Structure formats: structure tokens, C-alpha cells
Amino acid sequence: MFGPDPKDSATILLDNFSLEKRTWAVAGGKGGTGKTVLTSNLGVGLAILGYKVILIDADLGGADLHLSFGMPVPKRNLNDFLSGRVESLEDVILPTPSANLSIICGGSELIGLANLPHQRKEKLKRHINNLDADFILVDLGAGTAYNTLDFFVISNEGVIVCNPEPQAKIDAYAFVKNAVYRRLLQNFGRNTILKDIILKFGNSGQRATKIRNLIEMLGNHMPEFGDKAQTLVDDFRPKLIMNKVRKKTQLEDAERFVYLVREYLSVEMEYLGHIEHDERVVDACENMRPFLLEQPNSKVSLSIYNILFNMGVTDRQLRYDRTSYKKMSKGVRLESKLWKD
Ligand SMILES: Nc1ncnc2c1ncn2[C@@H]1O[C@H](COP(=O)(O)OP(=O)(O)OP(=O)(O)O)[C@@H](O)[C@H]1O
Ligand SMILES: [Mg+2]
Question: What is the number of structural domains in the chain?
Fold first, then answer.
């Protein structure tokens, strides 16, 4: 790793951490930033820390999370539930070689699912909430389709996977911006006047518009609307991972991104850390295995442990903590042997 990653935000998160089920939605805006790779590796890491984890492939346009686990054609997938072929989301959970880790695969065979009707989305949400797991990780597709934004907005923790390249940063910024508008519209959209104010503001085309000005406008309409909008924005705390970092100078990109999001969108992002660009990640993808299991001692794996601890996760058996996260590679090595069978 090029340098230390933030510890302060992790401390804050640790204070808030409770053992109830947590849902992490992994998004990124641009395609190919590493959402699927990170979802699978964070999932494996959580399972090794002793948690019951379910991964959901919610990339309804291009599902491929199952390939990270060497499952070429999943027997059942999310579409079986979404199309009503099975009653319960539990019916499409598939095992992985780890007892702690299960997966709900995605399927891309149904055209039109990229725009789920509201009722089906609500049903899915209900079923996700009822899943028996400590952690549910949702791998989202690229872009800012409503499905993707909605998953991101309803999950209790949203993680943005960005890359240092400008295209990825612009798309990640657009994703956070769209998520803020989606959040505001979901709450104020039924009031046609407020909806109009929000949409006009969002579509005004001026580059330097700041969300705090929109909040002010809503407050001018009625002070409690301004307060409500402020709370909605304050409660939205997406997290950031900078992936495929190749140069030390690129670490500053994350800082600048967090600053821009704060300044223009009034959103406080928590930076979880970076992951270097490493050909061994590509090798692991080709082998259809999470890189954590292939290379438990590599820098990229250490970065995953670090990110998990920055997310406020503690080892269930108290073997590793954030001061000794390097020891975790030993545990992962043992676990990886089980996965070979
Ligand atoms: N840290 C890394 N170093 C090198 N290659 C990486 C790294 N992270 C991801 N990759 C590679 O980037 C490619 C895309 O990764 P992945 O499929 O996870 O992206 P994605 O964001 O899920 O894409 P999509 O938007 O299509 O769903 C893969 O080939 C993967 O091996
Ligand atoms: Mg993906």
C-alpha cells in the first residue's frame, strides 16, 4: 500500500456498530471499476471473520457475481423470485464452499427487469430484510438506473467503488448526485410544487449549483421542508473505495473526491481505503476464485481486511482486530484450503 488509509472514520463507525443485520450496496457509476470483485472478496472476508453472509447479484442487466465463485450456470437465480416462479427469496439462495457464505445469483435472461415496478421492488426489499444473515452485500450494476439508485438508497450502507481515471470519478460523482436527488424525490415527490423545485434545480444545467442552495429553496417554501431535506442529506453517508490505484499521487484523488462531494452535494462521504491495481486480481477472476483465497498475503488482500475493519466490523471470535489485521492472512490461508475441495 502506498500510505496509511483513514482510521478516524473507522473509529466513528465502530462506535455506531451494532450486531444487527447490515446491508451493504456496492455501486460505482462507471462499468468495470471492480464492484463485483470487491463484493465477492468483502463477502469472503466477512465470512472468515465469522459472520453469516449472503451476497446478492442485483446487476439485473449483466449478472456475473456467480463467476467469482466458479458457478458457470447457477441452478436458481434472482429472476426466479422476481418473476414469481418461486415464492420466497430464500428459495434462490445457493451455497458456496464456505458454510458462512451463500449467494443469490443474478440472471440476465429476462428483458425489462432493469426497470422493476415499484411493487416488486418493495417485495424484494421485504424479503431481503427477512433473510437470515448478519450481512447482506448487494452487487449493483453500472449506471444510474432507478433500480440501482433505489437499492443504494435503501441499503443501510452504500459503498462506491471508484478508480483514479477521470471517467470513473465523473461517473461516481454523478451516481452520488443522482442518489441525493432520488432520496429527495422519494420523500418530496408527491408534492407537485416541491417536485417541480427539485427537478428544475437538478436540470438547471448550471455546473456550480450546490445542494445547500436547493435545501435553502425548499426551506423558503416552508421551513420544515428545508429541515427535512437537510436531515435526508445528512443521513446519507455513502462510503468510498478507490480501486485500481497505480500511483502514489492517485491517493489524493480520493481526498479531492470526498471534498467535492461535500462542497457541492453536502454529502459527507467516508473514505474506506484504496486497493492497488494488481494483475493477480485479474488472474483470480480468470480462475473464478476470490483473490482473497488465491493470495491471502498480498497487498490487495490486506487492503480488503483493512477496509472491513474501516467498515467497523470486528472479528466474531476476536482473533484479529484493526491493529493486527495482517494476522488475518493466516486465517484466510487456512480457509482457502477448505475452498479447494
Ligand atoms: N484492483 C484491481 N487490480 C487489477 N484488476 C482489477 C482490480 N479490481 C478489478 N479488476 C479487474 O477489473 C475488471 C472488472 O471488475 P469487475 O467485474 O469487478 O467490475 P464491475 O464494476 O463489477 O463491472 P460491471 O460494471 O461490468 O459490473 C475485472 O477484469 C477485474 O479483474
Ligand atoms: Mg459487476
Answer: 1
